[in-house]
Design brief:
Length: 200
């Protein structure tokens, strides 16, 4: 695993072993994960979404603590997966990083608690699975409009974005900050230290 430019986010690029029957790869290995991130991944929920081409889900995040860390993989088709630094006070606040996830290279992305997450389906029936450190809790969940012009996420040109009403009506990053919805970088760092100390 290697760390992305946003602290708290990593990408896993596994070795894929193809043969005449298909292929094999390890998409999660706890020892490698812990060596890279300095923590374990407590599994509380596993999600699977299937999306038509152009579907844009996110930018989603949850209150810290406990928020929700995610380990994300595309098992069919392809998506552009995006991590957004929404932590007020972070050196990379307001920056984003995109990683293509598909069923050929089998890359995965891990994002720690407090980061924003979104993806756009690049193919029909793009199937994304993700392991979550906490269960879904509607009262702690929030969103930022993925088409916020100030964030200027580089979604693929020529693909019409399909958004839910909830994501379309979500506030911009600036509006979310003004409303006090965003986690602070300090709170996220403190929570990460607590998790490591607890062996999580």
């Amino acid at each position: 695993m290697r760390q992305l430019g946003i602290s708290g986010a990593w990408v896993h690029e596994p070795k894929v072993f193809p043969d005449s029957r298909g292929s094999f790869h390890e998409w999660f290995r706890e020892a490698d994960f812990t060596a890279a991130t300095g923590r374990t991944l407590a599994l509380a929920q596993a999600n699977c979404s299937v999306s038509a081409r152009g579907t844009l889900r996110g930018i989603h995040f949850a209150d810290v603590p406990p928020s929700q860390a995610k380990y994300v993989k595309c098992v069919r088709g392809a998506v552009l997966d995006v991590v957004v630094d929404i932590r007020v006070g972070s050196p990379t606040f307001g920056q984003w990083e995109g990683v293509r996830l598909d069923d050929q290279d089998h890359t995965s992305v891990f994002l720690s608690e407090g980061l924003g997450h979104a993806f756009m389906a690049l193919t029909d029936e793009a199937t994304v699975v993700y392991l979550c450190s906490e269960g879904y809790a509607p009262t702690r969940e929030h969103g930022i409009n993925p088409l916020d012009p100030e964030l200027a996420v580089g979604w693929p040109a020529g693909v019409e974005p399909l958004l839910s009403d909830k994501d379309r009506d979500a506030p911009t990053l600036r509006e979310a900050a003004d409303a006090g919805l965003l986690p602070s970088f300090e709170a996220c760092e403190d929570f990460q230290r607590e998790l490591r100390a607890a062996g999580r």
